[in-house]
Amino acid sequence: MVLESLNVLLDKWFGSFVTQDPLLTLLGITFVMTLIVTLAYKYLTDQEKMKFLKNELKELQDKSKAAQGDAQKMKVHTSEMWKKNMEYMKHSFGVMLYTMIPFIILFGWLRVTYTGIDLNFLGFIHSWLIIYIIFSMVLSSILRKVMKVY
User: Fold this and answer.
1) Quick count: other Cβ atoms within 10 Å of Cβ 42?
2) Looking at residue 11, what is its pLDDT?
């Protein structure tokens, strides 16, 4: 019932755009959603802590590569990397939970709306989901760099 109402609302907002240019509309929606998620990560996580953990992970990766021949050192570095990675994930998990609900709603609407529409992106990509994933990965990478999100 609630999801149906949200689908009607999303149809009113974006439906005419989808019928005019489905690919461009999908790219616009992808950009907006990626921007929202990037902003959420920037302002709902401790960016100094995230940067610190990311730098520590990089150092541990370098140490692990340098200790390629020494199994004991590699084991120690790998164990440390797991600990730091888990801490990094713990800090970003809450944001993922907050952004998941809008994504579930939007993906439900996109699935219904784009079923039967052949987007024919680059001549061989026809699925809205694959196009969404490709563009969200590219846009996320660019936005995170520009906005200095760790």
Assistant:
1) 17
2) 83
